[in-house]
Amino acid sequence: MQQIIEKAYAKINLGLHITGKRPDGYHTLSMLMQTVSLYDEVVVYRTNDSDEISMDMDFGGRHPEEEITCDGDNLCVKAAKLICGKLPESHGYYMHLVKNIPSAAGMAGGSSDAAAVLRGINRLEGDYFSKDELLRMALKLGADVPYCIDGGLCLCEGIGEQMTPIEADLDAQLLLAKPAEGVSTPEAYRYFDEHPAAEQGSIEGVIEGIRKNDIFLISENIHNDLEDAAKHFCPSISEIEELMLTEGALLSEVTGSGPTIFGIFDTDEARRTAAEALRTTGLCPDIIYANCIRPDYD
């Protein structure tokens, strides 16, 4: 039985602007995405004696906040079936997923897992599909999946299919904090439609700040159109952000539709002080140290 191990990295949004809404109901976006060092591990096995697609998951003793199944509704299973359906010869695949990225966290954990399955199966099949073909398959699975094929710092527009890699690196020490409450992504977008964000920020300004290593320029321009919605459904976000800033964060912001908040710190000491302060509140079951990275998936 052949196997391959793929890392599925989480992401944060260094900017999320909603630019419109299509007739099919999908919102068009302009997002600045950044891969972080937190990752799931996906072990993909090829079985030659059947064409069955199956998987199991290991949460390391943690209880996921929402039910995650291993059946045909799971994004990893969908990814495997999609790519296997395009192969000239049928094989079976079994995936073992070790979850470290909190579920329903706004960090693209499920999307990154699906991208890892596409990469893994393609490698086990001798790189049968080109990168462009993988990206087209990824888009059918979800708006964040194409970005997760390569990751890094990237401007993603449209519904996620228009990607512009940014040749710059954010050197930052991150603290990720996920509250116990969840935020429904569809509900967050509905809230935005009814209560559009007044402040817009500037993704170009954030990119310039990253290139200049100017955290203050980044702070002035960073903005997430879904932050107000996330705070509406999860009020503790405001308390967590304020605590991070009080304990030395240079900025604190929601990623995706929430509820995870990331703080950027200039020293590890300040980051650890903030983490300890957050632990005493009991607001965050998940408090994670991370850094910005550029994955090497090749």
What sort of overall outline do the alpha carbons produce when their principal axes are compared? globular
What profile does the largest beta sheet have? 6 strands, mixed
Number of helical regions: 10
> Could you tell me how far the N terminus lies from the C terminus, measured between alpha carbons in angstroms?
23 Å
* Overall mean pLDDT: 93
Q: Which H/E pattern describes the elements? A: EEEHEHHHEEEHHHHHEEHE
Bin the strand percentage. Answer: 25-35%
Report the uncertain regions.
none
Question: What is the assembly state of the chains in this entry?
Answer: single chain
Helix content: 25-40%
Question: Structural class, from secondary structure content?
Answer: alpha+beta
- What gyration radius follows from the Cα positions, in whole Å? 19 Å
Count of distinct strands: 10
Fold and architecture overview:
Strands 1, 2, 3, 4, 5 and 6 form a six-stranded mixed beta sheet that branches. Strands 8-9-7-10 form a four-stranded antiparallel beta sheet, covered by helices on one side. By secondary structure, it is an alpha+beta fold. Helix 5 (about 185-195) crosses helix 8. It is globular. Helix content is about 35%, strand content about 30%. The two termini are about 25 Å apart.
